[in-house]
């Protein structure tokens, strides 16, 4: 998913790509439903990876809910992280008093019920909505195929953990310098959410991309690269 973006940084940085346990090429036997019943389990894995590779001054680039995983990891070991780059982040997907998350609670439970009953059908229907850019159907097909390669049981739990998460309190404690990249017309993380993240993280910069949809790493890699490069060059 980062193949259009990551190579642009390889001449200046040590670039590390990884699959979260339960996804991609990870070892599915390592998946523990109890450990991954909340985002903290994924943050633990990020820190374990950093420790194993002896990483310091880490620039963690996270997309969507992975942005919150990075925030949790940075809270636990703040001295290890130099910057966070959050692409389409959301600390809570459900609307709340004074907070726009983009979904009502019934919307989320309807989405989760649909995923539970027909994961492949849900993937085919939702992936094009998530990625946006209907004039480029190949992007929706790629995301659909990515979803369909994931073990359905793991995907269902990951979706439940993601869409029912609320990391707003933790986000307010983040002190790592952070870039918030927001897409226009994002069906998953609307503009109000990106501005909330920026307002909540003390040392953050906000950039509105011209890109639409929720996956600018796929749909607008050049703009995504330019935004990250510009921020890190300040």
Plain-language structure description:
By secondary structure, the chain is an alpha/beta fold. Helices cover 45% and strands 12% of the residues. It has 10 helices and 4 strands. It has helices spanning 40-52, 65-76, 105-117, 119-131, 137-148, 152-163, 168-171, 191-200, 216-219, 221-232, and strands spanning 58-63, 81-87, 178-184, 204-212. Strands 1-2-3-4 form a 4-stranded parallel beta sheet, sandwiched between helices. The protein is globular and about 45 Å long. 37% of the residues are buried. The mean pLDDT is 93.
The CATH architecture category equals: 3-Layer(aba) Sandwich
Broad structural category: alpha/beta
Helix and strand pattern: HEHEHHHHHEHEHH
Mean pLDDT equals: 93
In which order are the strands of the major sheet placed?
A: 1-2-3-4
Computed CA radius of gyration, to the nearest angstrom: 17 Å
Quaternary structure type:
single chain
Helix content range of the residues, please? 40-55%
Tell me the CATH topology. Rossmann fold
